[in-house]
């Protein structure tokens, strides 16, 4: 029973006199029918918290994604307790009249698929402190999400083939191509794109084959591979089916064709100016003339594949003794195989004070190679 200086009225439920705020009778005042009840009657039917009888969480048993609404969401959880707390918080609602609300939850793991949430709420209503405790069981239903189902079913929309031009890609190129693809997919996954995945990666005698989830991603990966490793991309679409609207659906094979020469190769252009150490296969092929030390760049029409033959690789070079410097254009070195003194061209990058040099023996003779940092400077 209440008393005070405010205008008196009676509770329509129990008949006790109650206080009513003058604002309740003004236009625009409270229109809640329960507002006319006394405190006893009001709290008799009052629930501080509205909670569901149970909560079911659908999670993917393969990748751990959570089904929320109409879609799967990657939550990156191994232990679903924190996820269950969030799901419980989303499903609980506190009475609109409550103020100064505080709450806490204590999860109780019943078994692998059941978590019991003990929730304690406190708040203030009609200048009265209230508390409520609810227990909500959370059940984890494990199934397979759409994405993992497609992967398990060997689904793919595009194929990437990494191939060399007149050669087989090196082990390093194959490994790097796979790393580029995995990094690309990881970037898409980080944005929440659940259509991003690699179904299969296989190294073959000719290079690398990868099955990719979409044509757009297959194209993006292939372009990223040639951007780093050089070369070009070709496309070969194949009609596989029609969708529900009668539109043709194509599976596209993207071939990342790597250039015939790679950085570190020594090639002969048969132009009379001596061998070239390749330093770049991007755009037009670039390198260093081993006879003079001058910079070389292929003509525009030759691009990354000028007419040349490979003489060897930087890794084939050997250290040998620099015998003497004859003049501005010639030096004497020891042949690393026969130990005979040979007169060869003196490139501009040669250090005249050096006691030894790195030379490559090839069908045209001996060539002094620049140090890696010297070759980079000539790009």
Could you say which structural class the secondary elements and strand pairing correspond to? alpha+beta
Q: For the CA atoms, what is the radius of gyration?
A: 38 Å
Low-confidence stretches are 1-7, 22-30
Shape: elongated
Content of β-strand: 35-45%
Count the domains: 4
Order of strands across the biggest sheet?
Answer: 6-5-4-10-9-8
State the separation between the terminal residues, measured CA to CA.
93 Å
**Fraction in helix:** 10-25%
The number of helical runs is 6
Could you give a short account of the major beta sheet?
Answer: 6 strands, mixed
- Please provide the count of β strands: 25
Quaternary organisation: single chain
Q: What value does the average pLDDT take?
A: 85
Could you explain the architecture of this structure?
There is one protein chain. With 379 residues, this protein is an alpha+beta fold. It folds into four domains: 1-45, no CATH class; 51-147, no CATH class; 154-258; 265-377, no CATH class. Helices cover 17% and strands 40% of the residues. It has helices at residues 39-44, 81-91, 146-152, 171-190, 215-229, 372-377; strands at 8-10, 17-19, 49-50, 55-60, 66-68, 71-73, 93-94, 99-111, 114-125, 128-143, 158-164, 198-203, 208-212, 232-242, 248-258, 265-268, 276-280, 286-289, 295-297, 309-313, 318-325, 330-334, 341-345, 356-362, 365-368. α4 crosses α5 (215-229). The longest helix is centred in the middle third of the chain and has 20 residues, at 171-190.
């Amino acid at each position: 029973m209440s008393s005070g200086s405010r205008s008196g009225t009676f509770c329509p439920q129990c008949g006790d006199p109650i206080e009513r705020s003058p604002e309740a009778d003004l236009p625009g005042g409270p229109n809640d029918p329960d507002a006319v009840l006394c405190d006893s009657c009001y709290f008799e039917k009052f629930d501080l918290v509205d909670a569901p009888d149970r909560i079911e969480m659908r999670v993917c048993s393969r990748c751990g994604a959570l089904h929320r609404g109409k879609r799967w969401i990657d939550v990156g959880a191994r232990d679903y307790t924190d996820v269950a707390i969030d799901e419980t918080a989303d499903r609980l609602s506190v009475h609109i009249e409550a103020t100064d609300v505080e709450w806490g939850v204590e999860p109780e793991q019943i078994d692998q698929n059941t978590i019991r949430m003990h929730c304690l709420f406190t708040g203030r209503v009609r200048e009265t402190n209230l508390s409520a405790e609810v227990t909500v069981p959370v059940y984890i239903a494990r199934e397979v999400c759409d994405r993992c189902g497609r992967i398990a079913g060997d689904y793919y929309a595009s194929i990437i083939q990494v191939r060399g031009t007149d050669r087989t890609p090196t082990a390093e190129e194959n490994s790097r191509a796979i790393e580029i693809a995995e990094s690309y997919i990881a970037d898409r996954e980080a944005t929440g794109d659940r259509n991003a995945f690699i179904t299969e990666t296989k190294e073959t005698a000719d290079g690398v084959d990868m099955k990719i989830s979409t044509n757009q991603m297959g194209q993006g990966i292939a372009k990223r591979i040639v951007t780093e490793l050089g070369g070009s991309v070709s496309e070969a679409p194949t009609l596989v089916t029609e969708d529900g609207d009668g539109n043709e659906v194509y599976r596209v094979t993207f071939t990342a064709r790597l250039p015939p020469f790679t950085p570190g190769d020594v090639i002969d252009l048969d132009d009379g100016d001596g061998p070239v150490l390749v330093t770049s296969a991007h755009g037009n092929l670039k390198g260093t003339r081993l006879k003079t030390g001058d910079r070389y760049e292929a003509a525009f029409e030759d691009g990354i594949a000028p007419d040349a033959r490979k003489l060897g690789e930087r890794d084939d070079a050997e250290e040998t003794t620099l015998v003497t410097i004859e003049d501005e254009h010639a030096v004497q070195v020891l042949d690393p195989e026969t130990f005979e003194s040979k007169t060869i061209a003196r490139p501009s990058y040669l250090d005249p004070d050096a006691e030894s040099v790195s030379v490559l023996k090839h069908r045209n003779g001996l060539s002094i190679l620049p140090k890696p940092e010297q070759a980079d400077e000539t790009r």
